[in-house]
Design brief:
alpha/beta; 2 domains; 14 strands; 365 residues; six-stranded parallel beta sheet; Rossmann fold; globular
Length: 365
Protein backbone atom coordinates (compact mmCIF):
# COMPACT_ATOMS: atom_id res chain seq x y z
CA UNK A 1 0.00 0.00 0.00
CA UNK A 2 2.79 2.43 0.94
CA UNK A 3 4.62 1.57 -2.26
CA UNK A 4 1.61 2.49 -4.43
CA UNK A 5 1.05 5.69 -2.43
CA UNK A 6 4.68 6.67 -3.01
CA UNK A 7 4.38 6.09 -6.77
CA UNK A 8 1.14 8.11 -6.93
CA UNK A 9 2.73 10.95 -4.95
CA UNK A 10 5.74 11.06 -7.27
CA UNK A 11 3.43 11.26 -10.29
CA UNK A 12 1.55 14.19 -8.75
CA UNK A 13 4.81 16.00 -7.94
CA UNK A 14 6.03 15.34 -11.46
CA UNK A 15 2.84 16.72 -13.00
CA UNK A 16 2.86 19.92 -10.94
CA UNK A 17 6.51 20.69 -10.15
CA UNK A 18 7.95 18.92 -13.19
CA UNK A 19 5.67 20.75 -15.62
CA UNK A 20 6.46 24.11 -14.01
CA UNK A 21 10.23 23.56 -14.12
CA UNK A 22 10.03 22.36 -17.71
CA UNK A 23 8.86 25.84 -18.71
CA UNK A 24 10.99 27.92 -16.35
CA UNK A 25 14.42 26.28 -16.55
CA UNK A 26 14.93 26.65 -20.33
CA UNK A 27 14.85 30.42 -19.81
CA UNK A 28 18.30 29.98 -18.33
CA UNK A 29 19.85 27.95 -21.13
CA UNK A 30 23.50 27.11 -20.80
CA UNK A 31 24.87 25.08 -23.67
CA UNK A 32 28.44 24.14 -24.46
CA UNK A 33 29.03 22.10 -27.64
CA UNK A 34 31.02 18.89 -27.46
CA UNK A 35 32.56 16.55 -30.01
CA UNK A 36 30.69 13.26 -29.85
CA UNK A 37 33.93 11.33 -30.37
CA UNK A 38 35.29 12.82 -27.13
CA UNK A 39 32.63 11.39 -24.82
CA UNK A 40 34.37 10.37 -21.60
CA UNK A 41 31.61 10.36 -19.03
CA UNK A 42 27.94 9.43 -19.50
CA UNK A 43 24.90 8.99 -17.32
CA UNK A 44 21.93 6.75 -18.15
CA UNK A 45 18.77 7.71 -16.24
CA UNK A 46 16.29 4.88 -15.71
CA UNK A 47 13.37 5.47 -13.31
CA UNK A 48 10.41 3.10 -13.24
CA UNK A 49 10.01 -0.63 -12.87
CA UNK A 50 12.28 -3.62 -13.24
CA UNK A 51 11.16 -4.42 -16.78
CA UNK A 52 12.14 -1.03 -18.23
CA UNK A 53 15.62 -1.29 -16.73
CA UNK A 54 16.09 -4.84 -18.05
CA UNK A 55 15.19 -3.75 -21.58
CA UNK A 56 17.73 -0.93 -21.31
CA UNK A 57 20.62 -3.34 -20.71
CA UNK A 58 21.26 -4.14 -24.44
CA UNK A 59 21.48 -0.39 -25.11
CA UNK A 60 24.07 0.14 -22.38
CA UNK A 61 26.00 -2.86 -23.71
CA UNK A 62 25.95 -1.42 -27.23
CA UNK A 63 27.21 1.92 -25.93
CA UNK A 64 30.03 0.17 -24.05
CA UNK A 65 31.22 -1.51 -27.25
CA UNK A 66 31.17 1.78 -29.15
CA UNK A 67 32.79 3.87 -26.39
CA UNK A 68 34.90 1.34 -24.44
CA UNK A 69 36.87 4.04 -22.62
CA UNK A 70 33.88 6.03 -21.39
CA UNK A 71 32.92 5.93 -17.70
CA UNK A 72 29.25 4.95 -17.32
CA UNK A 73 27.02 5.85 -14.38
CA UNK A 74 23.37 4.90 -13.91
CA UNK A 75 20.70 6.81 -11.99
CA UNK A 76 17.77 4.58 -11.05
CA UNK A 77 15.14 3.99 -8.34
CA UNK A 78 15.11 1.81 -5.25
CA UNK A 79 12.44 -0.38 -6.83
CA UNK A 80 14.53 -1.27 -9.87
CA UNK A 81 18.12 -0.92 -8.66
CA UNK A 82 18.60 -4.71 -8.29
CA UNK A 83 18.78 -4.88 -12.09
CA UNK A 84 22.08 -3.01 -11.94
CA UNK A 85 23.71 -6.21 -10.63
CA UNK A 86 23.44 -7.59 -14.18
CA UNK A 87 25.57 -4.77 -15.61
CA UNK A 88 29.31 -5.08 -16.16
CA UNK A 89 31.92 -2.31 -16.13
CA UNK A 90 29.60 0.40 -14.80
CA UNK A 91 31.33 3.01 -12.65
CA UNK A 92 28.62 4.07 -10.17
CA UNK A 93 24.96 3.24 -9.57
CA UNK A 94 23.05 6.16 -8.03
CA UNK A 95 19.60 5.76 -6.48
CA UNK A 96 17.74 9.05 -6.74
CA UNK A 97 15.21 8.34 -3.98
CA UNK A 98 17.95 7.43 -1.51
CA UNK A 99 19.75 10.10 0.52
CA UNK A 100 21.93 12.54 -1.37
CA UNK A 101 22.62 10.36 -4.42
CA UNK A 102 20.68 12.70 -6.72
CA UNK A 103 22.70 15.76 -5.66
CA UNK A 104 25.97 13.87 -6.09
CA UNK A 105 24.90 12.80 -9.54
CA UNK A 106 23.98 16.30 -10.71
CA UNK A 107 27.47 17.55 -9.77
CA UNK A 108 29.36 14.95 -11.81
CA UNK A 109 30.02 17.00 -14.99
CA UNK A 110 28.81 14.45 -17.54
CA UNK A 111 29.53 14.86 -21.24
CA UNK A 112 26.30 13.06 -22.17
CA UNK A 113 23.12 12.19 -20.31
CA UNK A 114 20.66 9.73 -21.84
CA UNK A 115 17.31 10.08 -20.09
CA UNK A 116 15.31 6.92 -20.89
CA UNK A 117 12.14 7.98 -19.04
CA UNK A 118 9.24 7.91 -21.48
CA UNK A 119 6.86 10.49 -20.00
CA UNK A 120 7.56 12.01 -16.60
CA UNK A 121 9.51 15.27 -16.43
CA UNK A 122 11.63 15.18 -13.28
CA UNK A 123 14.30 13.00 -14.90
CA UNK A 124 14.62 15.61 -17.66
CA UNK A 125 14.86 18.31 -14.98
CA UNK A 126 17.72 16.35 -13.40
CA UNK A 127 19.42 16.13 -16.79
CA UNK A 128 19.09 19.90 -17.32
CA UNK A 129 20.39 20.79 -13.86
CA UNK A 130 23.53 18.74 -14.50
CA UNK A 131 24.43 21.17 -17.30
CA UNK A 132 25.60 18.29 -19.50
CA UNK A 133 26.31 19.57 -23.04
CA UNK A 134 24.42 16.63 -24.60
CA UNK A 135 21.06 15.73 -23.05
CA UNK A 136 19.15 13.08 -25.00
CA UNK A 137 15.58 11.99 -24.26
CA UNK A 138 12.07 11.43 -25.55
CA UNK A 139 10.03 14.43 -26.75
CA UNK A 140 6.70 13.18 -25.37
CA UNK A 141 5.63 16.41 -23.59
CA UNK A 142 7.09 19.60 -22.12
CA UNK A 143 10.13 17.59 -21.00
CA UNK A 144 11.55 18.12 -24.49
CA UNK A 145 12.30 21.77 -23.62
CA UNK A 146 15.01 20.52 -21.25
CA UNK A 147 16.80 18.37 -23.84
CA UNK A 148 19.42 19.16 -26.46
CA UNK A 149 18.45 16.14 -28.58
CA UNK A 150 14.75 15.26 -28.75
CA UNK A 151 13.84 11.73 -29.87
CA UNK A 152 10.33 10.74 -31.07
CA UNK A 153 8.60 7.96 -29.11
CA UNK A 154 6.21 5.43 -30.61
CA UNK A 155 3.86 2.97 -28.89
CA UNK A 156 4.01 0.84 -32.05
CA UNK A 157 7.58 -0.43 -31.67
CA UNK A 158 9.30 -2.72 -29.18
CA UNK A 159 10.74 -0.88 -26.20
CA UNK A 160 14.33 -1.98 -26.80
CA UNK A 161 14.07 -0.37 -30.25
CA UNK A 162 12.74 2.84 -28.70
CA UNK A 163 15.69 2.91 -26.30
CA UNK A 164 18.12 2.25 -29.16
CA UNK A 165 16.86 5.38 -30.94
CA UNK A 166 18.34 7.35 -28.04
CA UNK A 167 21.79 6.39 -29.36
CA UNK A 168 21.21 8.06 -32.75
CA UNK A 169 22.69 11.45 -31.73
CA UNK A 170 25.89 9.59 -30.81
CA UNK A 171 26.22 8.40 -34.43
CA UNK A 172 25.58 4.77 -33.47
CA UNK A 173 23.54 2.16 -35.39
CA UNK A 174 20.25 1.53 -33.64
CA UNK A 175 18.48 -1.36 -35.36
CA UNK A 176 16.96 -4.03 -33.11
CA UNK A 177 16.86 -7.73 -33.93
CA UNK A 178 15.07 -10.37 -31.85
CA UNK A 179 17.19 -11.83 -29.09
CA UNK A 180 18.69 -15.23 -29.96
CA UNK A 181 21.13 -15.37 -27.04
CA UNK A 182 20.99 -14.03 -23.47
CA UNK A 183 21.91 -10.41 -22.83
CA UNK A 184 22.00 -11.09 -19.10
CA UNK A 185 24.73 -13.52 -18.06
CA UNK A 186 24.48 -14.87 -14.55
CA UNK A 187 27.60 -14.70 -12.42
CA UNK A 188 26.30 -17.11 -9.78
CA UNK A 189 26.81 -20.86 -9.91
CA UNK A 190 23.66 -22.40 -11.41
CA UNK A 191 24.47 -25.74 -9.79
CA UNK A 192 23.59 -24.28 -6.36
CA UNK A 193 19.91 -24.75 -7.17
CA UNK A 194 18.84 -28.23 -8.23
CA UNK A 195 15.63 -30.07 -9.08
CA UNK A 196 15.18 -33.82 -9.49
CA UNK A 197 14.27 -33.49 -13.16
CA UNK A 198 15.46 -30.05 -14.20
CA UNK A 199 14.67 -30.31 -17.91
CA UNK A 200 10.99 -30.65 -16.94
CA UNK A 201 10.69 -27.44 -14.92
CA UNK A 202 8.02 -24.86 -15.84
CA UNK A 203 7.84 -21.42 -14.19
CA UNK A 204 4.62 -19.50 -13.54
CA UNK A 205 4.73 -15.89 -12.33
CA UNK A 206 1.10 -14.77 -11.92
CA UNK A 207 1.70 -11.31 -10.43
CA UNK A 208 1.81 -7.89 -12.07
CA UNK A 209 2.16 -4.33 -10.80
CA UNK A 210 -1.17 -3.43 -12.44
CA UNK A 211 -4.26 -5.37 -11.21
CA UNK A 212 -5.82 -5.25 -14.70
CA UNK A 213 -3.03 -7.55 -15.94
CA UNK A 214 -3.68 -10.40 -13.50
CA UNK A 215 -5.29 -13.51 -15.01
CA UNK A 216 -7.78 -15.77 -13.24
CA UNK A 217 -6.14 -17.75 -10.43
CA UNK A 218 -8.21 -20.90 -10.99
CA UNK A 219 -7.03 -20.94 -14.61
CA UNK A 220 -3.40 -20.73 -13.48
CA UNK A 221 -4.12 -23.62 -11.09
CA UNK A 222 -5.68 -25.67 -13.91
CA UNK A 223 -2.59 -25.07 -16.04
CA UNK A 224 -0.29 -26.03 -13.17
CA UNK A 225 -2.23 -29.20 -12.35
CA UNK A 226 -2.23 -30.40 -15.94
CA UNK A 227 1.49 -29.74 -16.29
CA UNK A 228 2.20 -31.64 -13.06
CA UNK A 229 0.12 -34.62 -14.23
CA UNK A 230 2.23 -34.63 -17.40
CA UNK A 231 5.41 -34.99 -15.37
CA UNK A 232 6.53 -31.37 -15.12
CA UNK A 233 7.79 -29.56 -12.05
CA UNK A 234 5.93 -26.26 -11.62
CA UNK A 235 7.57 -23.43 -9.71
CA UNK A 236 5.73 -20.23 -8.74
CA UNK A 237 7.78 -17.03 -8.88
CA UNK A 238 7.15 -13.47 -7.73
CA UNK A 239 7.86 -10.86 -5.09
CA UNK A 240 6.31 -10.23 -1.70
CA UNK A 241 3.31 -8.56 -3.32
CA UNK A 242 2.57 -11.76 -5.27
CA UNK A 243 2.50 -14.18 -2.33
CA UNK A 244 -1.27 -14.01 -1.97
CA UNK A 245 -1.71 -15.08 -5.61
CA UNK A 246 0.80 -17.93 -5.46
CA UNK A 247 -0.64 -19.15 -2.17
CA UNK A 248 -4.07 -19.42 -3.81
CA UNK A 249 -2.61 -21.40 -6.72
CA UNK A 250 -0.79 -23.64 -4.25
CA UNK A 251 -4.04 -24.30 -2.38
CA UNK A 252 -5.49 -25.68 -5.64
CA UNK A 253 -2.29 -27.54 -6.53
CA UNK A 254 -0.11 -28.30 -3.46
CA UNK A 255 2.53 -29.95 -5.68
CA UNK A 256 3.60 -26.53 -7.00
CA UNK A 257 6.83 -25.19 -5.51
CA UNK A 258 5.94 -21.72 -4.20
CA UNK A 259 8.99 -19.43 -4.24
CA UNK A 260 7.20 -16.05 -4.26
CA UNK A 261 8.83 -13.60 -1.86
CA UNK A 262 11.61 -16.09 -1.09
CA UNK A 263 14.12 -15.08 -3.77
CA UNK A 264 15.93 -11.92 -4.78
CA UNK A 265 16.21 -10.93 -8.44
CA UNK A 266 19.43 -12.89 -9.01
CA UNK A 267 17.97 -16.06 -7.45
CA UNK A 268 14.80 -15.61 -9.49
CA UNK A 269 17.01 -15.43 -12.57
CA UNK A 270 18.64 -18.74 -11.69
CA UNK A 271 15.25 -20.43 -11.32
CA UNK A 272 14.15 -18.97 -14.64
CA UNK A 273 17.33 -20.16 -16.32
CA UNK A 274 16.54 -23.69 -15.15
CA UNK A 275 13.00 -23.50 -16.57
CA UNK A 276 11.92 -24.59 -20.03
CA UNK A 277 9.32 -21.85 -20.29
CA UNK A 278 7.74 -19.05 -18.24
CA UNK A 279 4.01 -18.33 -18.14
CA UNK A 280 3.16 -14.81 -16.94
CA UNK A 281 1.29 -11.58 -17.65
CA UNK A 282 3.13 -8.47 -18.83
CA UNK A 283 5.57 -8.09 -15.93
CA UNK A 284 9.18 -7.55 -14.92
CA UNK A 285 9.76 -11.32 -14.60
CA UNK A 286 8.58 -11.73 -18.20
CA UNK A 287 11.26 -9.28 -19.38
CA UNK A 288 13.83 -11.00 -17.18
CA UNK A 289 13.08 -14.35 -18.82
CA UNK A 290 13.50 -12.75 -22.24
CA UNK A 291 16.86 -11.30 -21.22
CA UNK A 292 17.95 -14.80 -20.15
CA UNK A 293 16.71 -16.27 -23.47
CA UNK A 294 14.12 -18.37 -21.64
CA UNK A 295 10.97 -19.02 -23.74
CA UNK A 296 7.88 -17.14 -22.58
CA UNK A 297 4.11 -17.35 -22.83
CA UNK A 298 2.74 -13.92 -22.01
CA UNK A 299 -0.85 -12.82 -21.45
CA UNK A 300 -1.79 -9.42 -22.87
CA UNK A 301 -4.88 -7.26 -22.63
CA UNK A 302 -4.41 -3.86 -21.01
CA UNK A 303 -0.76 -3.64 -22.04
CA UNK A 304 0.53 -2.87 -25.53
CA UNK A 305 1.72 -6.11 -27.11
CA UNK A 306 3.78 -4.41 -29.84
CA UNK A 307 5.59 -2.35 -27.22
CA UNK A 308 6.20 -4.92 -24.48
CA UNK A 309 5.75 -8.54 -25.64
CA UNK A 310 9.02 -10.51 -26.05
CA UNK A 311 10.04 -11.04 -29.68
CA UNK A 312 11.17 -14.24 -31.38
CA UNK A 313 10.07 -17.77 -32.26
CA UNK A 314 10.16 -19.09 -28.69
CA UNK A 315 7.96 -16.35 -27.32
CA UNK A 316 4.16 -16.55 -27.59
CA UNK A 317 1.96 -13.60 -26.67
CA UNK A 318 -1.73 -14.42 -26.19
CA UNK A 319 -4.00 -11.46 -26.85
CA UNK A 320 -7.71 -11.38 -27.74
CA UNK A 321 -7.40 -7.84 -29.18
CA UNK A 322 -10.72 -6.58 -27.86
CA UNK A 323 -11.84 -3.15 -29.04
CA UNK A 324 -11.22 -1.65 -25.59
CA UNK A 325 -7.62 -2.85 -25.37
CA UNK A 326 -4.86 -1.96 -25.00
CA UNK A 327 -5.74 0.72 -22.49
CA UNK A 328 -2.33 1.49 -20.98
CA UNK A 329 -0.33 4.56 -21.99
CA UNK A 330 3.00 5.62 -20.48
CA UNK A 331 2.61 3.25 -17.54
CA UNK A 332 -0.91 4.41 -16.63
CA UNK A 333 -3.85 1.99 -16.85
CA UNK A 334 -7.39 3.25 -16.34
CA UNK A 335 -9.65 1.35 -13.99
CA UNK A 336 -11.36 -1.28 -16.16
CA UNK A 337 -15.13 -0.92 -16.48
CA UNK A 338 -15.34 -4.17 -18.44
CA UNK A 339 -13.95 -6.28 -15.58
CA UNK A 340 -10.83 -7.15 -17.60
CA UNK A 341 -12.80 -8.98 -20.25
CA UNK A 342 -9.63 -8.91 -22.37
CA UNK A 343 -8.03 -11.41 -19.97
CA UNK A 344 -11.18 -13.38 -19.21
CA UNK A 345 -11.42 -14.21 -22.92
CA UNK A 346 -8.08 -16.03 -22.73
CA UNK A 347 -8.80 -19.70 -22.09
CA UNK A 348 -6.63 -22.45 -20.69
CA UNK A 349 -6.84 -24.07 -24.12
CA UNK A 350 -5.18 -20.98 -25.62
CA UNK A 351 -2.36 -21.32 -23.11
CA UNK A 352 -1.89 -25.06 -23.63
CA UNK A 353 -1.71 -24.51 -27.37
CA UNK A 354 1.16 -22.11 -26.75
CA UNK A 355 2.84 -24.60 -24.40
CA UNK A 356 2.61 -27.33 -27.03
CA UNK A 357 4.13 -25.04 -29.65
CA UNK A 358 7.12 -24.31 -27.39
CA UNK A 359 7.53 -27.74 -25.80
CA UNK A 360 6.78 -29.57 -29.09
CA UNK A 361 4.55 -32.19 -27.51
CA UNK A 362 0.90 -32.85 -26.71
CA UNK A 363 -0.16 -32.23 -23.14
CA UNK A 364 -2.90 -34.71 -22.25
CA UNK A 365 -5.73 -33.93 -19.82
Amino acid sequence: MFFMFKITLLKIIDLIIGSLLSFILPLFVRYKPIEISSVKKILFIRPGGIGDFILLIPVIQKFQKHFPEAAIDVLCEKRNHEVSSFLNNVHTIYIYDKGFDLIKCIKNNYDVIIDTEQWHRLSAVTSFLSNAPVRIGFNTNSRKRLLTHKIPYSHEEYEIQSFLHLLNPLKMPSEFSAVSSPFIHLKNDLSKIKFENENQTIAIAPGASVPERIWNISKYAEIAGRLIRNGYIVILLGGNNDKKLTKQINEYEPACIDLAGKTNLTETSIYLKKSRVLLSPDSGIMHLAYALNVPTISLFGAGIEKKWAPKGENHKAINKHLSCSPCTRFGYTKHCRNRTECLKEISTSDVFEAFEAILHQTLSD
